[in-house]
Amino acid sequence: MTVAEQLRLEQAAYVAAVAGKLTDFLTTRQSVMSAISPDIDPLMGSISNLVTGGKRLRALMCYWGWRGAGGEAGADEVVTAGSALELFQAAALIHDDIIDRSDTRRGGPSVHRRFSELHGTQGWALDSERFGHAAAILTGDLCLSFSEEAFTEIGQSAAAGSRSRLIFNLMRAEVMAGQYLDILEEVAGPRRDRAGAVSRAQSIIRFKSAKYSTEHPLALGGALAGARDELLRGYSAFALPLGEAFQLRDDVLGVFGDPVTTGKPAGDDLREGKRTVLIAFALDLAGPAESAFIDAKLGSPGLGDADVDEIRRIIADCGALKATEVLIEDFGRAAFSALDLLPLDELPKTALRRLAEATVSRAA
Amino acid sequence: MTVAEQLRLEQAAYVAAVAGKLTDFLTTRQSVMSAISPDIDPLMGSISNLVTGGKRLRALMCYWGWRGAGGEAGADEVVTAGSALELFQAAALIHDDIIDRSDTRRGGPSVHRRFSELHGTQGWALDSERFGHAAAILTGDLCLSFSEEAFTEIGQSAAAGSRSRLIFNLMRAEVMAGQYLDILEEVAGPRRDRAGAVSRAQSIIRFKSAKYSTEHPLALGGALAGARDELLRGYSAFALPLGEAFQLRDDVLGVFGDPVTTGKPAGDDLREGKRTVLIAFALDLAGPAESAFIDAKLGSPGLGDADVDEIRRIIADCGALKATEVLIEDFGRAAFSALDLLPLDELPKTALRRLAEATVSRAA
Predict the structure, then answer these.
(1) Which of A121, A164, B75, B229 sits most deeply, having the most CB atoms within 10 A of its CB?
(2) What is the pLDDT of residue A55?
(3) What is the DSSP string of B5-52?
(4) Strands (DSSP E) found in B54-144
(5) Do the Cβ atoms of B119 and A187 come within 8 Å?
(6) Top-level EC class, please (chains A, B) (predicted)?
(7) Phi (first) and psi of residue B109, to 5 degrees
(8) Partners of residue A159 in chain B, C-beta under 8 Å
(9) CB within 8 Å: A183 and B135
(10) What is the nearest CA distance from B70 to chain A, expressed in angstroms?
C-alpha cells in the first residue's frame, strides 16, 4: 500500500469514527432531553445538523498532531478529542451567526433563522426574530456544554492540569476574546488609528481563527499523545501561519467568493462590517474618496449589489487584494517551511501537507 | 460554642473561601486575557462584577450537601465546586438577561446594557444595542467556559463518569432546556391548551430553576463527599420542592415585588411576557374579558404602570395570587417535612433549615 492509499484509508476511518462518536454522543443526550420535553427536539436537531457537515479541519489537525507524536491509529482518545472540537466549532458557529446576523450557514438557514422560521410557520405570538435569537443563544450554550462533556470523556489524559486541558481551555478563551476584538473593531475601528488597522486585523485573525482552527487542535493532538515541548513548538511554527493564511483566504472569499461555492451570499462580510486585513489594506491604500466610500458603506445591512461591486473594484484596483494574496503566500510559505523541518514520519507529514494545501488554496 | 454560632462562623468562612477562590481564578485568567489585548478587560470586569454579588444560594446548598454527607469543613473540593456553580450562575444570568431583554441586574445595568452604554459613551460606530448583545453573548460564553474550568479543577472526584460530573452535566442541560421551554411558552403558550398551562408552567419552573438552584447543587455536594444513593434521594425530596417554592416566590416578586428590594423595575416579568404559574392561574381563574386583557398585554415592551396595576388587581382578585401562595406553602411544607426525615447531624440540618426559610420567605 502506498503512503497516499494508507493516508486516504486512515483519514476516512478517522472521519467516520468521529461521525459515529458524535452520533452516539448526541443520541444519549437526545434521550435525556426528550425526557424533559419533546419540545427540546429542535435544539438537538440543530446541533446534529451542524456537526454532520463541515470540513472536519480541526478534528483532522488534532488527529495528525496525535499521529505525528506517535499516537496509535484510530485510538479512542483522539476520536473523542476530535468530536469535542467539532462540537465546540458548532457552538461557536451558532453564536457567531447571531452576532454577525448571518442568515445562512453552509447553504442552509443558520440556527437563529431556523428558529425564527419555526416561529413563523407555527404562527406563534410576539416577535419571530427575537425568538430565533433567544433559542439560538440557548442552543449554542447547550452545544458548548456538550463539547466540554465530550472533552472530559477523553479521560485521564485530559484531566485538570494536563497539557491537553490547558490547550483546550486556552483555545476557548482565545477564540472568545478574538471574536470580541472582531466586533469591537467593527464599531471602534473607524475611530482608531488607521495606520494600526492592518496589525489589529492580523491580531484578530490570530486569536479568533488561526490559533483555534489549526494551531491549538494540532497541539492538542500532540499533547494527548505525550509530545515533547520541542515538537509542540514545531507544530506551532507550522500551524499558526497556516491558520493565518486560512483566515486571510476566508476574508478574500467573504468579499470575492462565489456564493454557489461558499454557501454564503456575496458581500456578506461587507454587510456585517468586518474590518478584515483585506479591508484594512484597502482603507490604507485607496485614495481618500474611495476610503471614505468603503468606510461609509461597511456594516450597512442594506448594502446592494452595485455597492458590493464598487467596493470589490476599489479593493482590487488599490492593491489591497494583491497585498492580501502576498500575505497569504508568505504565511503559506512559512507554514510549509516549518512543516519540512518537523521530525515526522512520512504518513503524518504527507497528511499535514495535504491538509495545508487544501487550506490555503480553498475556494469555499 | 452553640450550633448557631458554629454555623455562622463556618458558613462565613466558606463564603469567604469561595469569594477568594473566584478572585484567584479570575486573576489568573485576567493575565491570560490581558496578554491578548487590554480591550478584553470589560468582559472580565463584567464577570468579576457578577460573581462578587449574589446570595451564593447554589454554593451554600452544595456546601451543606457536602457537610451533611460527612465532608470535611472548608475542604478545597467543595470550595472549588461552589466557585464553579457561581460562575455557571453568572453565565446563565448574562445570557438570560439578553434573552429576557432585562436592562437591570441587582440594581445595576445588566451586562448587555453595560456594553451598549460603553458603545454610547465611546461614540463608536454602528448600533449600540446590537454591539451590547454581541459582547454579552461572548462574555457569557467565556464565563460558561470558566465555570467548566473551575469544575474540572475539583480533580479526581469530578472526573469523567463520576457522579458529581453527571450531576453537573445534567444540571447544565436541564437549565438550558428549561430556559428554552420558558421562551417557547411565551410565544406558543397563547396557542396551546389553556387547561394545561399551569402544569406546563410548573414543569418549566422545575427545569429552569428548581433543579438547578437547589436540587442539583445539594446533590453535587453530597456526591462529592461520597453520599450513598439513599441520602441523595432524601436530598432531592427536600430540595426539589424547596426550589419550586423558591421560583414561585420569584414569580410573585416579579409582579408584586418592591423594585427597591428586588433591584428590578416593577412589572418586568409582565413586559417580558413570562407565562409563569401565577399568570397561568390568572388566565384560568379570571373572567373572559380579564383573561383577554392579560393575554393582550403580556409581552408588550411598552407596558405602562396603569396596565401593570390592572394586571396585578386581576391576579389578586381572581384568586391566582392566593392559589400561588398556597402552592408555595405546600412546596415549603413538603420541603421541611423531607428535611426532618434526613439523617443529618444537627449542624448541616440547621444550616439547610435556615437556607430553606430564607428561600421561601424572601422579599428579593
Answers:
(1) A164
(2) 86
(3) HHHHHHHHHHHHHHHHHHHHHHHHHHHHHHHH-GGGHHHHHHHHHHHH
(4) 104-105, 108-109
(5) yes
(6) transferase
(7) -65, 145
(8) 152, 155-156, 159
(9) yes
(10) 25
Statement: residue B277 has pLDDT above 70: yes
Q: What is the pLDDT of residue B218?
A: 98
Contact B160 A155 (CB under 8 A): yes
The Cβ-side half-sphere exposure at A299, using a 13 Å CA radius, reads 22
Q: Rounded to the nearest 5°, which phi and psi values hold at B89?
A: -60, -40
Place of cell 454554593: B59
- Which amino acid belongs to residue A47? I
Task: Give yes or no for residue B363 having a pLDDT over 70.
Answer: no
pLDDT confidence bin for B262, thresholds 50/70/90: confident
Measured between alpha carbons, how far is A295 from A355 in angstroms, rounded to an integer? 36
Do residues A203 and A181 touch, judged by C-beta distance below 8 A? yes
Q: What are phi and psi of B104, to 5 degrees?
A: -125, 150
The pLDDT value given to residue A106: 83
DSSP 3-state of B116:
helix
Q: In this structure, what is the dihedral angle of CA atoms A135, A140, A141, A142, given to the nearest 10 degrees?
A: 90
Q: What is the pLDDT confidence band of residue B263, given thresholds at 50, 70 and 90?
A: confident
Q: What is the C-alpha separation between B302 and A274, in angstroms, rounded?
A: 34
Q: How far is CA B238 from CA A138, B243, B324, B341, B353, in A?
A: 29, 9, 19, 9, 10
Distance from CA of A2 to the nearest CA of B (A): 39
Cell of A92: 461557536
- With beta carbons under 8 A apart, name residues in chain B contacting A191: 122-125
* Structure ipTM over 0.85, yes or no: yes
Please tell me the predicted confidence (pLDDT) of residue B260. 80
Pairwise CB contact (< 8 Å): A138 & B180: yes
- A124–B191 CB contact, under 8 Å: yes
Q: What chain A residue is nearest to B171 in terms of C-alpha separation?
A: A145
What's B192-220 look like in SS3?
A: CCHHHHHHHHHHHHHHHHHHHHHHHHHHH
Contact A281, A248 (CB under 8 A): no
User: Under an 8 A CB cutoff, do A142 and B176 touch?
Assistant: yes
Mean pLDDT by 10 residues, chain A (364 residues): 95 97 97 94 96 91 98 97 98 96 89 98 95 98 97 92 95 97 94 90 96 97 97 98 95 89 80 93 95 92 90 97 96 97 97 93 70
C-beta atoms surrounding B180 within 10 Å: 29
**What whole-number distance in Å separates Cα of residue B188 and Cα of residue A166?**
43
Average pLDDT of B84-113?
A: 94
Residue A84 in contact with residue A143, Cβ under 8 Å? Answer: no
Which of A25, A30, A33, A37 should one mutate to test binding to chain B, selecting the residue with the greatest count of B CBs within 10 A? A37
How many CB atoms sit inside 10 A of residue B260's CB?
A: 9
User: Quick one: pLDDT at residue B255?
Assistant: 93
Which amino acid, B338?
A: A
The domains found in chain A, sorted by start residue, are 1-154 (1.10.600.10), 161-342+350-355 (1.10.600.10)
How distant is the Cα of A250 from the closest Cα of chain B, in angstroms? 21
Task: Verify whether the Cβ–Cβ distance B187 to A99 is below 8 Å.
Answer: no
* Model pLDDT, residue A364: 62
**Which amino acid makes up residue B97?**
D
Which residues of chain B have a CB within 8 Å of the CB of A140?
137, 141
CB-CB under 8 Å, A125 with B190: yes
Q: Which of B95, B100, B97 is nearest to B273 (CA)?
A: B100
CA nearest neighbour of A204 among A100, A276, A114? A276
Which residues in A lie closer than 8 A to residue B176 (C-beta atoms)?
A: 43, 138, 141-142, 145
Q: How far is B33 from chain A (nearest CA, A)?
A: 7
